[in-house]
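Record copied across here:
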Amino acid sequence: VASVWDSVSVEVTGGDLDAGVAGDERAIEVTVDPGKLDHHELVVQVVHGPLDTSGELGVRRRTSVEMDHVGDGVYRATYIPGAAGPWGLTVRAMPTHPALSTVCETGLVASG
């Protein structure tokens, strides 16, 4: 997996990305090119949370939601901003396998 990981790419292609009201459900859609891997070898998540004073997605209070693969490399999910104020998100793909204790174990991440 590590030798072909650079062939994986993630692109946000749609969704409710504009400012909204805290507590309202928002949708996101991404396209993932698995490169030399298969989609079943990936887990794709949207990570969202409040932005810090520098406009970055802070480490505290961020949440991840696993996205559903709906076909042709398209993944969709909904998420709910839990607080008022500037809210950000990123999407990440990581390799998965039943033998891994966690999807973070390999340290491989493709983001978009």
In short: The chain has a mean pLDDT of 91. The longest strand covers residues 42-50.
